[in-house]
Amino acid sequence: MTTPAEGSLVLGIDLGGTKILAGVVDDQHRIVGRAKESTPAREGPEALREALVSAGRDALQVAGIGPERLSAIGIGSPGPLDVDAGVIRSSPNLNVTDFPLKGTLEEAFGTPVAVQNDVRVGGYGEFKLGAGRGYRDVLAAFVGTGIGGCLIRDGRIVTGVTGNAGEIGHLIVKADGPKCGCGRKGCLEAVASRTAITRRVYKAIKKGASTPLRDVVKSKTSRLKSKELSGAYRSGDPVAVHEVDRAARFLGLALGGLMNVLGPEIIIVGGGVTEALGGPFVDLVRNAARAQAMADPDRLVRIEQAELGDDSGLLGAALIARERFVGTGEPQRT
Amino acid sequence: MTTPAEGSLVLGIDLGGTKILAGVVDDQHRIVGRAKESTPAREGPEALREALVSAGRDALQVAGIGPERLSAIGIGSPGPLDVDAGVIRSSPNLNVTDFPLKGTLEEAFGTPVAVQNDVRVGGYGEFKLGAGRGYRDVLAAFVGTGIGGCLIRDGRIVTGVTGNAGEIGHLIVKADGPKCGCGRKGCLEAVASRTAITRRVYKAIKKGASTPLRDVVKSKTSRLKSKELSGAYRSGDPVAVHEVDRAARFLGLALGGLMNVLGPEIIIVGGGVTEALGGPFVDLVRNAARAQAMADPDRLVRIEQAELGDDSGLLGAALIARERFVGTGEPQRT
């Protein structure tokens, strides 16, 4: 087999609730082969195993290499995880319990596997290879179905005594406000996630508002895609504009408060909602954050959109595996 | 002159809005002489200079030493400060602008002076000598007229790119809630400080509530002392109980959110309000924080009352000066 890629190669996998992205990543952090599978979210462990292995094999095939060319595998997964054992403890979204990610991939590809939380690999990817390049103190915020965060200090992911540091979705921003998926009230995720926006769009429709989203949002738990939301927003639909503005403002308030507490060099705003809405959304978030951040009068904290898009998880997972098992993870600085 | 104290001695000063506390601190972090002056809050720079020097001289006299025995001076002050120049940039509470704290004390005592933010010296004192002894990742929260915080990570005060990190008083906890002194709405300080409690007690009185605090709180900006509040709380006065419980809950919600983000080893709750109300207040805060902190299901983050009381600022300031100028700041671990 001819090997088009030189140097050490790592397979990065981003295991999401709807899709699995896999990519073979070279030592310049370029994706030299990629593949995608739908996540079998309800079929149980055997189906999940097959989909993961299939995505990995397809990526290898596209890269034109065999598994013996891989130096390591890194995977980002929803949790809660046992990171050291490489096990998904339980995931209602994936319908598995004690699923051995590490064991499954080691067996299939014969190479060491690093497992980490999905938000954290995305944050680490952005930190080292995306909008956070060159910084040491970074907060990444990802807005999608929920809101996740990753905190990096002195160049390392902060895990905290809890192991779960970086969790920003359950900061209280509106005490006694809307009920959150976590059972509490007024969490950031309950007012600024796509789930929160969907619920409010549904409310507006029930009250008779006219919006092109009417065809998509038929209940408060309807699946509203970020692209559908951004389409309506861009077309000037008043319902979409109002709800996106409101969510961005809440996210900004929370991030402004965290600017006060942490004084990071940069806050990176990413995730599906951000990706779809782009610059105008980040501008709204930035303005609200700056207005709230009294401890940063000179505007020293940068607030920027994520740069890696859908690839942040895959690239971050590959990088974490490379740093652990290959040891040459220092990226090219631009 | 006989010298009762051995080893190197440092003068610590806590410059507050109502009083100046000064203490000569030995190398075992014991206060071997202390003095107190009222802060001339309206009289301007010359009166402030005299009061600071007088407090320092009195502390030396009580310790039975002359200024030549001092190795350094540390002072904690309200800000904003230019920490390096040792200057108070402006302080409405002290009615001074560009006041040279460092120059004033160096000239009067002929020894090097370290200047730091008042909340930060208190947090550092608690971290090294109080409730935070033995920990490396600490968040200190001080509740008084306002709400201040100090963040310590890997054993060092986090200042952030803004220089102001650790500011927790302006986290948003109730968006569009009560107006804050900073001009924003729903900040933690606007719902959980003594100022916020006072305003609500006044509201209750205006609505006809019967409370022993009626004699003290005659307007929404009345000066309610922490001791008066705690007296009413302990006597079971329903107004005091309701408002203290409410403030503690809001503080707990905010700290629970920060537990999620930071995962610190310990959160230290201090300040005048905490000091006066004691354990029951800290219990309320702890319960609310734990209920909010989804990222700490195993309750790994400790939440404890500060231990140094009024001396945290003085001892912390002395310690910062000792570490900078004497270099033997490592305290005795217990």
Automatic annotation (TrEMBL), chains A, B:
<comment type="similarity">
    <text>Belongs to the ROK (NagC/XylR) family.</text>
</comment>
<dbReference type="InterPro" id="IPR000600">
    <property type="entry name" value="ROK"/>
</dbReference>
<dbReference type="GO" id="GO:0004340">
    <property type="term" value="F:glucokinase activity"/>
</dbReference>
<dbReference type="Pfam" id="PF00480">
    <property type="entry name" value="ROK"/>
</dbReference>
<dbReference type="InterPro" id="IPR043129">
    <property type="entry name" value="ATPase_NBD"/>
</dbReference>
<keyword id="KW-0418">Kinase</keyword>
<protein>
    <submittedName>
        <fullName>Glucokinase</fullName>
        <ecNumber>2.7.1.2</ecNumber>
    </submittedName>
</protein>
<keyword id="KW-0808">Transferase</keyword>
